[in-house]
Amino acid sequence: MDRILLHLAFSALRTGGHRHGTFLSAAATAAKCAVYVTYIEQDRNLRRTGQLHHIEPKRVKAIVEEIEQSLAEGRVLKMLGAQSPDYLIQFPCLWLERYPCRAGCPRWQGGGLSARQRWEIEQKLPSHLPEAQVIDSMQLTELIDLLHERSQAKLPESERVPLSEALEEHITSRLLHSHTILKIENAWGLPLFALLKSSYAPEGLEERVFTSIEDTANYFRLMKEWANRSPHTMRIIEELDVPLESFDEALNELDVLVRSWADRHHQSGGKSVILQMAFGEK
Fold this sequence. Notes:
Strands 1-3-2 form a 3-stranded antiparallel sheet. It is mainly alpha-helical. The radius of gyration is 24 Å and the shape is globular. It has helices at about 1-15, 20-40, 45-55, 55-75, 90-100, 115-125, 135-150, 165-175, 205-225, 245-265, and strands at about 135, 180-185, 190-195. Helices cover about 55% and strands about 5% of the residues.
């Protein structure tokens, strides 16, 4: 637990740029929330909650009143806060679903371009692209808007926010910076975009650190459910010795195996699950 706290503090203060006081406030809020959740689980028993958290019942009462007042007034608790939409990982899948490209067909299937202009676009594309069409900026906006709507549908109506132009530009820049998409300047019309990768992964150090924190928090939750013997949870760990010359091959093969397994078992309308793994030196 100390190691987890140390890594979180280091990442928040050194990489995230959060102030020391902000981190302490967020840690205090998390501790208060833990006390409040225990209080609810213990049928609102102040004494039992105090015993489990080693604090006086009167302190438990003060924490409960503070949290309930914040909830009643709709105030934002002093947390560090998320840095970006969490649905970017779904973006390549939606593109492939809405704009697939069959082998042998032209990447740009919109009208209004001559054969020469289509050829010039093809020359700007790298080899080994996912089987997806090239789309224009309006189609890109529609994809982003659809993902945003799907994410907002999971929230209470009072917490939903429309997709602003600033957020749309931020999402587009994240996709470009991570080399998930490629922008192709088009002298004959709207800018065009190509899908470079079939999965999204943040590129910059700061983005990767925030992603690692979010993943760690979710992994910690999954491991807690596994420890409690919750159904449909599994702990996955394997130790092996890999020759140095085979590292890249092993990584690529693992990526293909996991993706094909997910494609085989995915079915719309089924129970939503998540698989998280990390690979690295022991």
